[in-house]
């Protein structure tokens, strides 16, 4: 079983609190898939405004958590850790569907599979569940770039 704790995750992702959204990697298989978790707590910054009377994790944050999980899988698959000059950018999100709200106390279990890698574009099929119930699913596309390169046709 290949797993990573939070300190190992920080070696692969440049994100830090409050934007690091992967707490643990449960299992991964190079070139294939990864399963990771995000423990959603009442202390999350976004709950202050989304929504004070009924805290709900924003959908965009769930997508970001899955994208961070996908980035981990890519670096693990390549067998390298990112350098100071490497960044993973979103290139696209297709078919995003939100099936249930996620709130404080939930554990988001993210499963990401590599669909295709071609010409520097990584495509993934991602989903996240809470207590076995589908919360969100999407097809993600990412690309890796040097920060010295000007990203074209990708979100900054």
UniProtKB/TrEMBL annotation:
Active site, renumbered: 50
Reactions listed under catalytic activity: a (3R)-hydroxyacyl-[ACP] = a (2E)-enoyl-[ACP] + H2O
A molecular function (GO) term: (3R)-hydroxyacyl-[acyl-carrier-protein] dehydratase activity
Subcellular location: Cytoplasm
Assigned EC number: 4.2.1.59
Source taxon at top rank: Bacteria
Main location: cytoplasm
Any one Pfam family match given in the protein's UniProt record, by short name: FabA
InterPro entries: FabA_FabZ (IPR013114), FabZ (IPR010084), HotDog_dom_sf (IPR029069)
NCBIfam families named in the record: fabZ (TIGR01750), PRK00006.1 (NF000582)
Family: Belongs to the thioester dehydratase family. FabZ subfamily.
PANTHER family, alphabetized: 3-HYDROXYACYL-[ACYL-CARRIER-PROTEIN] DEHYDRATASE (PTHR30272)
Function as written in the Swiss-Prot or TrEMBL entry: Involved in unsaturated fatty acids biosynthesis. Catalyzes the dehydration of short chain beta-hydroxyacyl-ACPs and long chain saturated and unsaturated beta-hydroxyacyl-ACPs.
Protein's name according to its UniProt entry: 3-hydroxyacyl-[acyl-carrier-protein] dehydratase FabZ
Organism: Keguizhuia sedimenti
